Design the sequence.
């Protein structure tokens, strides 16, 4: 065991000296998590805001109703920002250049047509570069049209001809939709990207541990270790320990750093600890297995990168694959990354460590299968 | 001439290493597939509905919702099952119609439906769909409630009157057009939207992995051996730049052709697209050689490559459209070459632009490339002769 610890110490010193391990296990995931958190903050939190233009060619009560009752309340809530465009041509140009996401065109004679029960039309010009904003604009226009229709139906049923001004504004709202999307069981943007990047780069951070045996063999240092009174097992254990230590330090540092720097909410400490330990075991096991299949350190490096990339992508470390449903969502459950993130999701409503027992178990099963295969083949790594 | 030999040798070394086929070909296609599947526009949104009220109005609401083309409706019988399905991603959103839906409406009151969604783009499309069904139902329901209040008849007969009136009241139409007055089409395919931004991401990311390759060339002593022949450092520098450029172009070609063949992605004006790709490949080449000559070990260059390759791509709108960025992030996006390339592709693919339309973007990209290449050549000459 002492020998293994000496090997561990030597490997750690070596990796720290060229700073590569610090880069891949801490700096890169931290910086990427901050960038992603910054960019996707609004999108994931549902706080999108769009800029729209209005061209009023009508100047009548219907146009006034649309602007003051249809748009103004949304603008006051900060959901949209509305500018006036003097002419249709100017509005088309602004929309084409994506300066606004969409333009509402209130045609001349709209008030007259609406007031007298004649067919009428609102036009929404959408920017092709702001597809989400354009759809929002369309639905705003449609809901105004629906309210106006209600008023016209009332007027037609009572049989007074035109609609009284202000009737549309005083119409009841029979169906309302309350968004009760719980923030529980779903990670916020900051936490999702902190955890996603941490688990993604974990697999890169641990890869050098056992794969470095291939380097030692190439450089002749393995043979030198083996002629000394050092058992093969001690060498192997030392290398495995390097993987485990680097992985543990990486995840723990990232969890603590993102908690303070990016206000990521990882959840219950004991639960996070269980997930971290299981994930480090799984990452070390699968990376060791890949290393036993390779002949040269270069081969091991690129195969490991492939496995880490595919598992990370499928596991939803970059974008939530589970929402795609179907085969991909099922496949993603074969990855420890997916279970790690699901474990954190389970705790995000404030649940205790019990909520991660299932996910931790799943990660450990992955670790046991790949680790078992790796151990069965590990002899090849320390063969002379 | 010698420079071409050096570049050719670099390419041969790359292709001989079979794992690179994965990185150059399989990985980009996999990402386009995954992104298309996760965020693709033409995907059906899956909505779970729990109708606690068996009444006719509640039934009509559910029926109208199920007739919406973009929505796949799944009926649930228990709240906990519905909630679980949403939280695990089997559904994009859940909707609960309260048990007293019909009676609330008949009393002239507001019925509140509970909606909960996953935080994803599909769910964002669902909310307006439900809202529009509610608004459509409200047209006659609101009219009926007003009639009931004004005339004192029963709700049922008020609703009948409202429905009759609705049948011959023309509706206020909403028409969506593109800026040129033509039909507004969101996207032509679920993979179309992501393909050009992914192309930009991968050209740069692949270039970045080339940085480690340059360091390997030095570590293996290939550069030293070439220098011992009558070859100037300038030739080696040009050769290595050409080699990187060839790899970047090969990556671009693979993605363009692969996405065209497998996913039917359209790439717009040939000349314009080719020019943007070439300009962006030059940027990638410059930065790759700069990183490769600045760092001393492959282990260092690789993480730095990841950081630049993914970080700049995210900032420049290659991972999510700039439209959803907060305003500060939107402002800094254009410090990345990615944002300019994405702008150019938007002009080519969505606005029907050609080479002339994208000349400003190409100019900026060439500016990026010039700065990166000048710095890279300066560093590389120093590293080679050190």
Sequence:
């Amino acid at each position: 065991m002492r020998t293994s610890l000496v090997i561990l110490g030597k490997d750690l010193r070596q990796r720290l000296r060229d700073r590569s391990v610090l880069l891949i296990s801490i700096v890169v995931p931290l910086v990427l998590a901050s960038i992603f958190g910054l960019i996707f903050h609004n999108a994931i939190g549902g706080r999108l805001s769009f800029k729209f233009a209005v061209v009023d060619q009508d100047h009548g009560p219907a146009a006034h109703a649309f602007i003051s009752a249809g748009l103004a309340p949304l603008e006051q809530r900060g959901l949209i920002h509305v500018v006036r465009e003097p002419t249709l041509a100017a509005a088309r140009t602004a929309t084409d250049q994506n300066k606004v996401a969409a333009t509402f065109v209130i045609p001349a004679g709209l008030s007259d047509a609406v007031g007298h029960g004649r067919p009428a039309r609102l036009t929404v010009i959408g920017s092709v570069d702001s597809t989400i904003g354009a759809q929002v604009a369309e639905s705003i226009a449609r809901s105004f049209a629906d309210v106006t229709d209600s008023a016209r139906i009332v007027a037609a049923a009572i049989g007074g001809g035109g609609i009284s001004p202000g009737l549309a504004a005083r119409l009841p709202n029979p169906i309302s939709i309350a968004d009760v999307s719980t923030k529980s069981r779903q990670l916020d943007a900051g936490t999702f990207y902190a955890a996603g990047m941490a688990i993604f780069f974990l697999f890169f951070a641990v890869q050098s541990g056992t794969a470095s045996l291939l380097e030692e063999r190439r450089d002749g240092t393995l043979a030198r270790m083996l002629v000394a009174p050092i058992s093969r097992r001690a060498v192997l254990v030392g290398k495995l320990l390097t993987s485990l230590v680097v992985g543990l330090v990486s995840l723990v540092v990232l969890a603590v750093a993102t908690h303070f720097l990016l206000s990521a909410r990882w959840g219950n400490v004991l639960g996070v600890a269980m997930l971290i330990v299981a994930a480090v075991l799984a990452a070390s096991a699968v990376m060791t297995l890949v290393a036993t299949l390779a002949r040269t350190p270069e081969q091991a490096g690129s195969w490991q990168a492939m496995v880490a990339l595919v598992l990370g992508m499928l596991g939803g470390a970059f974008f939530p694959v589970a929402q795609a449903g179907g085969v991909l969502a099922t496949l993603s459950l074969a990855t420890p990354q997916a279970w790690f993130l699901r474990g954190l999701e389970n705790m995000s409503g404030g649940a205790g460590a019990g909520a991660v027992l299932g996910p931790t178990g799943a990660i450990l099963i992955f670790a046991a299968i790949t680790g078992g295969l790796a151990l069965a083949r590990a002899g090849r790594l320390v063969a002379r | 001439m010698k420079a071409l030999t050096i570049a050719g040798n670099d390419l041969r070394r790359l292709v001989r290493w079979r794992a690179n086929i994965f990185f150059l070909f399989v990985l980009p296609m996999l990402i386009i597939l995954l992104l298309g599947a996760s965020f693709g526009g033409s995907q059906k949104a899956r909505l779970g509905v729990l109708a606690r009220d068996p009444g006719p109005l509640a039934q009509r609401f559910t029926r109208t919702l199920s007739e919406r083309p973009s929505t796949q409706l799944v009926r649930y019988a228990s709240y906990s099952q519905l909630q679980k399905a949403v939280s695990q991603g089997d559904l994009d959103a859940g909707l609960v119609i309260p048990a007293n839906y019909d009676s609330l409406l008949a009393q002239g009151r507001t019925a509140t439906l509970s909606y909960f969604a996953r935080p994803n783009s599909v769910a964002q499309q669902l909310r307006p769909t439900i809202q529009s069904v509610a608004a459509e139902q409200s047209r006659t329901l609101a009219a009926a409630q007003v009639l009931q209040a004004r005339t004192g008849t029963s709700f049922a007969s008020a609703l009948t009157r409202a429905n009759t009136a609705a049948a011959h009241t023309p509706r206020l139409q909403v028409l969506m057009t593109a800026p040129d007055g033509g039909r507004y089409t969101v996207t032509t395919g679920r993979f179309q939207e992501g393909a050009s931004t992914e192309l930009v991401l991968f050209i740069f990311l692949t270039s970045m992995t080339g940085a480690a390759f340059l360091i390997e060339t030095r570590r293996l002593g290939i550069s030293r051996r070439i220098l011992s022949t009558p070859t100037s450092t300038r030739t080696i520098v040009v050769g290595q730049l050409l080699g990187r450029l060839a790899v970047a172009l090969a990556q671009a070609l693979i993605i363009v052709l692969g996405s065209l063949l497998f996913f039917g992605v359209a790439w717009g004006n040939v000349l314009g697209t080719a020019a943007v790709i070439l300009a962006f490949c030059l940027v990638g080449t410059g930065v790759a050689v700069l990183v490769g000559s600045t760092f001393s070990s492959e282990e260092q260059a690789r993480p730095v490559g990841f950081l630049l390759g993914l970080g700049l791509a995210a900032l420049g709108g290659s991972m999510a459209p700039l439209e959803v960025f907060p305003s500060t992030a939107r402002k800094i996006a254009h410090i990345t070459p990615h944002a300019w390339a994405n702008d150019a592709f938007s002009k080519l693919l969505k606005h029907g632009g050609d080479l002339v339309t994208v000349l400003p973007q190409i100019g900026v990209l060439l500016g990026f490339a010039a700065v990166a290449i000048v710095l890279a050549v300066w560093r590389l000459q120093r590293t080679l002769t050190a």
Notes: Residues 2-44+188-382 of chain A form one domain. Chain A has a mean pLDDT of 85.
